[in-house]
Specification:
Radius of gyration: 23 Å
Structural class: mainly alpha
Order of helices and strands: HHHHHHHHHEEHHHHHHHHHH
Strand order of the largest sheet: 1-2
Number of domains: 2
Strand content: under 5%
Helix content: 55-70%
Number of strands: 2
Distance between the termini: 62 Å
Oligomer: single chain
Shape: globular
Largest sheet: 2 strands, antiparallel
Length: 395
């Protein structure tokens, strides 16, 4: 470690020799603070000092995302060979999935950090750590075969428009990863509609015709059409069993299919105190209430699917654990978190089930909740102030 420390110290000394090279300090600082605790200290006032900084917090979230990433790699390969009917080994499945998923991760981080470095050098500040998580989230909420250039364009758009124009990390009002997904959904809806996922699109480079399979939500939404893919909800439950939906062995976006992997990540985030249990519980309850109400209404297979099974498919649980709990874009007050979470979960299922043209409504629901989060906190604070004023008057 002393050897590395000496390298960074020499790099800082060389950068500080002239004003022209000083502007490249963020490049060295970003790499240094990944390996060492930052030596920046406060000079005035009293502060509580802690070993956890923003970069360490972001790394914990990335660790929580690793189960979803690893399972997404496996499931991508698994869905491919399930469709082709080939009998292959575990490592062949993993290898096939890795060839698709890992380039998405590399492109996401490459494009996003490129923009982060440009803004850091231009504005003369350290590279902000918020994108460490967004760079992992973006590929996990993409279909497996989304073109890499689309991922790059969406990532750049999300970082510039979704974050930097608001002032950078901690200032954005919308979740950066969901901003990237929303951009692709409205710009290229056939790739992000949620109804189909191309299982073998990546085999075009091998001279094999691409073929597609409907996602669980695609089959579910078809019940709202004149020619549904399945005859009744019983067939849906047979094709996408509760257990397969929970474990994640169903087609869908790369990292969103496995409820189990999401819960493992949730456990780590709750244990470390990074995510809010209030948001998670209220989000789940809001979605369950809406699904139960529409389940009672019935009338088609979409509405008749049991509420719990409804929450097991699509990106509901992934959004619950990793998107809605974003501390920057979520409500900050305790009561506000309960309202915010319930609103996001409630709207997510409402948009999904009432609008068959877009069966995955979690993205839009969380973005809407992001916009309302400041208003929710304002109302909660005003209510608390009014209650205190009443107590003072009666005292």
């Amino acid at each position: 470690m002393k050897f590395l420390r000496k390298i960074f110290d020499n790099a800082h000394a060389k950068l500080n020799k002239s004003e022209k090279t000083k502007k490249f300090f963020p490049l060295v600082d970003a790499i240094e603070t990944l390996m060492f605790t930052p030596n920046h200290v406060t000079k005035n006032g009293t502060h509580v000092r802690d070993s956890i900084d923003l970069k360490r917090t972001m790394m914990i979230v990335i660790i929580a995302l690793i189960p979803c990433l690893l399972f997404g790699i496996y499931n991508t390969g698994y869905q491919h060979f399930l469709l082709t009917g080939e009998a292959v080994s575990f490592w062949e499945i993993v290898g096939k999935g890795a060839l698709v998923v890992l380039p998405l991760v590399v492109v996401s981080y490459g494009a996003g950090l490129f923009v982060e470095f440009i803004f850091a050098i231009k504005n003369g500040h350290s590279v902000q750590e918020g994108f460490l998580v967004s760079g992992m989230l973006i590929p996990l909420i993409m279909p497996a075969d989304v073109p890499l250039w689309m991922v790059a364009v969406a990532t750049i758009f999300a970082v510039v428009i979704g974050k930097e124009v608001f002032g950078g990390t901690g200032m954005n009002i919308l979740n950066v990863a969901l901003t990237a997904r929303a951009f692709l959904f409205f710009a290229y809806p056939t790739k992000m509609s949620g109804n189909e996922v191309w299982i073998t699109g990546f085999d075009k480079m091998e001279g094999v015709d691409a073929s597609s399979g409907a996602t669980a939500l695609g089959d579910l939404a078809s019940f709202m059409q004149e020619t549904p893919a399945l005859e009744n909800v019983a067939q849906f439950q047979q094709k996408y069993s509760m257990m397969d939906s929970f474990l994640g062995f169903i087609p869908g976006s790369v990292g969103e299919t496995s409820v189990l992997m999401c819960l493992i990540g949730a456990g780590l985030l709750l244990w470390t105190g990074i995510a809010s249990w209030r948001i998670m519980i209220s989000f789940f309850f809001g979605g369950f209430v809406m699904a139960s109400v529409l389940n009672l209404v019935g009338g088609n297979g979409y509405f008749e699917l049991p509420a719990l099974h409804q929450l097991m498919v699509g990106g509901f649980m992934f959004g619950l654990v990793f998107m809605a709990t974003d501390p920057v874009t979520a409500s900050q007050t305790n009561s506000g978190k309960l309202i915010y979470g319930f609103l996001a979960g409630f709207l997510g299922i409402l948009i999904r089930m009432v609008n068959p043209a877009y069966p995955e409504g979690i993205m839009l629901a969380i973005l809407i909740a992001n916009v309302f989060a400041p208003l929710i906190d304002h109302m909660v604070i005003r209510a608390n102030v009014n209650r205190r004023n009443k107590r003072l008057k009666t005292a």
